[in-house]
Design goal:
The structure is a single chain. By secondary structure, the chain is mainly alpha-helical. It folds into 2 domains: 123 residues, Arc Repressor Mutant, subunit A; 29 residues. Helices cover 65% and strands 8% of the residues. It has a 3-stranded antiparallel beta sheet. Strand 2 and strand 3 form a beta hairpin. Helix 2 packs across helix 5. It holds the Pfam family MarR.
Amino acid sequence: MELPIEENRDRLTYWLFFTTRCVTTTYAEVLRAHCEGLGKTYIVTPPQWGALSLLLAQDGMVIGTMSQIRGIDASAVTGIVTRLEQMGLVERRLNKQDRRVIQVFLTEEGREISKSLATVVERFELNLKNGFTDGEMERFYAHLQQMITNAAEISKELGQ
């Protein structure tokens, strides 16, 4: 990745966006390389992995719950689930007690790739933390949470 020009070196927003772009690009590449390495006909993207990881932890979730946990619109989750369904990784089923409720379940292929990707994602995260102590990571998370709180306050002041 390209290093920042001098005028951006002390801009927090620049570093946050730059870091996000670098990490997201590499994350997508790690997922792609793993799927290709297994000879899969599909590539799991980071948003798709987010949905798969939720289902790996608790199979049979409804889209609304997945949306709330991930903090993204239900329509976006519906699109992700549709693509995963087309890839044969999930299936939608009517709830037996309430047929108005549609649950999302991993297929056997979905479960296998999810377990496989979980290991790859864990290794990726460990590599990202390389060089930081546990205490430094705890402080980093606290700083990020404070920035989220600060941004929410700014948004509230703007009437958003």
